[in-house]
């Protein structure tokens, strides 16, 4: 009898029960949002980690949240670590990521040989005359602006066009890369506790009253950005700025290596948190774990730095062209992974880093 009464009571009140459809839909939307948030978070950290690696490799205001980090990186089914030579392209841009850019300040190719013996830092002069698809002949630094567009530039597109131009010009495949802005460089330098840099001569800032004495010194974030911007008043102008960027790269790499950042997940996580976002990276077919593995192997010896052999051309306007005497041989050595032999034969072309 009690059971019948209960059934009757439930039947009378059943029509008053709200539909479960909206509740289920709300739960499903919440689940989807949480999944998407976790995915974006992991994607952003993946891109920042790559930028940290390339910044540790070259230390210039060059690249890179990443729209090209692939799903295998997140799922664990990443491709195997590459065994051949790798080329990482770093493009430096002044100012925050959401403001218009006219030119790239720095273009640096990091060549990692197949034997992982050391890293080679090859600066490509920003005023190098190149062919830019859709824009004719112009300076290399214009590719970033042409690709990014206006009024709100897309740095990923700017990097893509720059990568294409560099690959066509020097004849090598670009495996990964990034674009770093000066605000990111400032955060990175402060996050690692300063970057040691050794300069062959005194530099007086054309932008501030700061003086960088000859010799070795420790640079915080503000001083790092100030140094990397300097070209006025230096004997070789923008070429000297490229050499100072290489010296800064060597110091940053040494600093990161001393702290064991790339091999300590806890330290890496802390550093990524301090640096934050505002980066643009591209991994191509190479996974982040693979790049980390390559980066740690390549830090066993001091990096070797050089500027692409060029000659000055004053007319029709100030720019550089490939040195007809040394340029072809250098590019052949780069393509054939023989930079060690080339630098040994041309020691005067190697930038002094310490």
Automatic annotation (TrEMBL):
The keyword Plastid does not apply. NCBIfam families: lytR_cpsA_psr. It comes from the Bacteria. Residues 104-256 form the Cell envelope-related transcriptional attenuator domain. The chain crosses the membrane at residues 43-63. Keywords: Membrane, Transmembrane, Transmembrane helix. Belongs to the LytR/CpsA/Psr (LCP) family. This is LytR family transcriptional regulator.
């Amino acid at each position: 009898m009690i059971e019948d009464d209960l059934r009757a009571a439930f039947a009378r009140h059943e029509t008053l029960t709200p539909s479960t459809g909206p509740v289920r839909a709300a739960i499903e939307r919440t689940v989807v949002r949480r999944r998407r948030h976790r995915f974006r978070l992991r994607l952003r950290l993946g891109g920042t980690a790559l930028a940290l690696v390339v910044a540790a490799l070259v230390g210039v205001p060059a690249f890179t949240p990443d729209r090209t980090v692939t799903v295998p990186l997140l799922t664990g089914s990443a491709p195997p670590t590459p065994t051949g030579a790798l080329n990482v392209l770093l493009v430096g841009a002044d100012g925050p990521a959401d403001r218009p850019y006219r030119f790239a300040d720095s273009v640096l190719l990091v060549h990692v040989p197949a034997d992982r013996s050391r890293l080679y830092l090859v600066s490509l002069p920003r005023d190098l005359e190149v062919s830019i698809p859709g824009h004719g002949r112009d300076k290399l630094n214009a590719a970033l602006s042409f690709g990014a567009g206006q009024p709100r530039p897309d740095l990923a597109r700017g990097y893509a066009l720059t990568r294409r131009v560099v690959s066509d010009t020097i004849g090598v495949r670009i495996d990964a890369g990034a674009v770093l802005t000066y605000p990111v460089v400032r955060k990175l330098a402060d996050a690692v506790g300063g970057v040691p840099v050794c300069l062959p001569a005194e530099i007086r800032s054309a932008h501030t009253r700061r003086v960088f004495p000859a010799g070795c010194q420790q640079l915080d974030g503000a001083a790092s950005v100030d140094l990397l911007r300097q070209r006025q008043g230096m004997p070789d102008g923008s070429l000297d700025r490229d050499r100072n960027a290489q010296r800064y790269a060597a110091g940053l790499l040494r600093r990161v290596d001393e702290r064991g950042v790339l091999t300590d997940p806890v330290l890496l996580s802390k550093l990524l948190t301090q640096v934050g976002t505002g980066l643009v990276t591209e991994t191509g077919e190479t996974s982040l774990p693979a790049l980390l593995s390559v980066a740690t192997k390549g830090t066993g010896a001091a990096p070797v730095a050089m500027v692409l052999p060029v000659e000055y051309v004053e007319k029709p306007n100030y720019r550089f062209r490939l040195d007809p005497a040394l340029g072809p041989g250098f590019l052949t050595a780069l393509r054939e992974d023989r930079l060690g032999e080339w630098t040994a034969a041309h020691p005067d072309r190697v930038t002094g880093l310490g």
